[in-house]
Amino acid sequence: xxAFIGSVFSPYYHWSGRRDPENHVTFNxxxxxxxxxxxxxxxxxxxxxxxxxxxxxxxxxxxxxxxRLIAIAFDETFLPWPGQRLxxxxxxGRIELEPAFLADIAYALDPEGRHSWQPVAPTGxxxxxxxxxxxxxxxxxxxxxxxxxxxxxxxxxxxWDWARGKTADGRAILLYDSIRGNGENNRFGLTYxxxxxxxxxxxxxxxxxxxxxxxxxxxxACDETERPTLAAACEDTPFYRRSLVETVLFGDRVxxxxxxxxxxxxxxxxxxxxxxxxxxxxx
Length: 283
Hints:
CATH architecture of the domain at 152-276: Beta Barrel
Order of helices and strands: EHEEEEEEEEEEHEEEEEEEEEHHE
Distance between the termini: 21 Å
CATH class of the domain at 152-276: Mainly Beta
Shape: globular
Strand content: over 45%
Structural class: mainly beta
Largest sheet: 8 strands, antiparallel
Radius of gyration: 18 Å
Number of strands: 21
């Protein structure tokens, strides 16, 4: 689940000149499971937005933090999915994340400090319930972060890979591997102990992953003597890919949620014209 104010992927925000982020807000929900996949990403205008220090509302969906629990309630229209749904479908559900601890360090992704990333809750217990799930929901480990910036991603980056997982001894591990528009590569990793102690490290060399249907491949850090494997493909689009990947880091085999963003593809006019089919706007 991602809440956007000034949606970085929105063609409408791009075409408007990015002057009014609060008029381009989105509550994106993606569900993956044995019952199939579901995707909702309806952009709305400023009338659908309300927020204060503890709560953000976009349309009928919200995210709230009470000091202990991050509670998300979603009520969205999920788009048709090939082979599963021929028509849009309204789905409602709830996600609760109880962080093991809160992290307060934001990391600059570029030397100018125009783009920042902050792991807010690197690990925690998450529960998901949805009226469309045959088994009622899911319980497991979860994660929460946020990105913020003052310029379009495609203005400063060629792309990046991100990954998050958990080691056998209980540490949360995060990887960031970005390539700036000038070709400079910024790679770093973070580990968090169960008590919240953070250690930054230099990851092993990046190894390429097999390309998806649209040609987006990406890569992930992996020990030189090992090879990463694609365990499951969640999203495969012309500019973005989300997957479950198994890799080996300093001898530890880790299963990680992995994302690849190709900013050059995102900036292509033909791709922006395709996006409204996945991101309708209801101002």
